[in-house]
């Protein structure tokens, strides 16, 4: 079964052709990073306009690279939430028009579910149940994956997502956008134990996240250094901040897996490509007896291959949409 998948939830216009869920025939991503770097983050209106300009060419490229014609397709899939509403609407509208004109089924895909499904592309033999950490610019969740179409949210963020905190701290440190790679690069030259930034836990047994506090602690530390005329040790701050975030992410993931009595854990989302995070979770998972899975970095960022993978399993489960499909900025898993 060949599915044309479309992703436009944030600032990447992406299209892919995926066969039988895990065979990626093409995976085209048009990123807007250089445009949004000027503003230190994603500007929703700019993102939407760029999607409108790019989506036709990206879809054509995905079809050409996969040596697939429109007639060869069995279905069209699209991310319909969560994300930036204007950006989502571009993808949803294009997918609906294509589905209607071709007379092919339309498959709605949840963005976070798609991130989780990227693990099946990387490791097709991975079978639920397992516990997955989904960490990105807009999301920080721990999800119990019961089956390929059944999910239970165990933990989520009460304020800033991990990736959002990385972006904001990177901007204050003058390291640029996107923040995750910039912080990681600076941290390589710093001392992760130089500054003790807070690790927020949501009470006894609480697994939800809160990264607003550590972000504020970094800002206050920088301001205090500035007021006292002390050197702002950018690399040490980056390393210490990064360690505070990955300590919390890894601790909560391992605790969630123990609570669910799972034997497998997985990572997903842009922050999941952070190397110190992967190394720390690998170390903790080995100590606790969990088998760890994660996709390669290209599949951690927003892409359409993961959408095509999720769509395949949704289709097998009977989940299709009609022309009333809408986009949703906030959408429960």
The value of Rg in angstroms is 20 Å
Total number of strands = 10
Just name the CATH architecture of the largest domain.
2-Layer Sandwich
Kindly give the count of domains.
Answer: 2
**What percentage of residues falls in helices of 4 or more residues?**
40-55%
What does this structure look like?
- With 333 residues, the protein is α/β, with parallel strands linked by helices.
- The chain contains eleven helices and ten strands.
- Helices cover 46% and strands 19% of the residues.
- The chain starts with a strand and ends in a 17-residue tail after the last helix.
- The mean pLDDT is 95.
- β9, α9 and β10 (291-293) form a beta-alpha-beta unit.
- α4 crosses α11 (305-316), α5 (162-173) packs parallel to α7 (212-228) and α5 (162-173) runs antiparallel to α8 (234-260).
- The longest helix is centred in the last third of the chain and has 27 residues, at 234-260.
- The protein is globular and about 65 Å long.
- The chain has two domains: 2-116 and 300-316, Nucleotidyltransferase, domain 5; 128-297, Nucleotidyltransferase, domain 5 (2-Layer Sandwich), CATH 3.30.420.
- It has helices at 33-37, 44-65, 85-102, 111-122, 162-173, 179-187, 212-228, 234-260, 275-288, 297-300, 305-316, and strands at residues 2-7, 12-19, 23-31, 75-81, 106-110, 130-135, 140-147, 150-155, 264-268, 291-293.
- A five-stranded mixed β-sheet has the order 3-2-1-4-5, sandwiched between helices.
